[in-house]
Specification:
By secondary structure, the chain is of the alpha/beta class. The protein contains five helices and four strands, in the order H-E-H-E-H-H-E-H-E. The chain has a single domain, classed as Rossmann fold (3-Layer(aba) Sandwich), CATH 3.40.50.300. Helices cover about 40% and strands about 10% of the residues. It is globular and about 40 Å long.
Length: about 150
């Protein structure tokens, strides 16, 4: 709906439409590094990439990363849609790369879920969604990593 006033939204949707549904990973391991900003995720991910001769991918993926500032300045629902689309685009990149080498990822679905939860609560633990809420459930159609650290 926002494509009418955010021209970059159409480009993101075009990239998303090119992604195959239910991507399957290749034979190499896929490892995700998650954590707070400035805690060393990128440093560790780069080191592991170098050690394993792996592919390093980031969320949001490089193809939409330049538009991040535009979407970060939008209402929460549009911002969430941008990052969710980024996860599916990234999954497509993971599927391709994992057929050739191990894949190391600097953030993925967990960061998107954490942001969603953080923007839904009023800073009180008792305001968190209940334990079995859908926000905690891995999307069935999103490629899963082998390990998350």
């Amino acid at each position: 709906q926002c494509a009418a006033w955010i021209s970059e939204a159409r480009a993101v949707l075009d990239l998303l439409e090119k992604c195959p549904e239910h991507q399957k990973k290749g034979g190499f391991p896929v490892v995700v590094f998650e954590g707070l900003d400035a805690t060393g995720k990128t440093t560790v991910a780069t080191s592991v990439r170098d050690t394993l001769n792996a592919v390093l991918l980031r969320s949001p993926p490089a193809c939409i990363s330049p538009w991040r500032a535009i979407f970060d300045d939008q209402p929460t629902s549009i911002k969430r849609a941008f990052y969710a689309a980024g996860n599916y685009i990234l999954a497509s990149e993971i599927a391709r790369a994992s057929t050739q080498a191990p894949v190391i990822i600097d953030r993925y679905w967990h960061s998107t879920a954490a942001y969603t939860i953080a923007t839904e609560v009023n800073s009180k633990v008792q305001d968190l969604p209940p334990a079995h809420d859908d926000v905690y459930q891995w999307p069935e159609d999103l490629l899963k990593p082998d390990l998350v650290l």
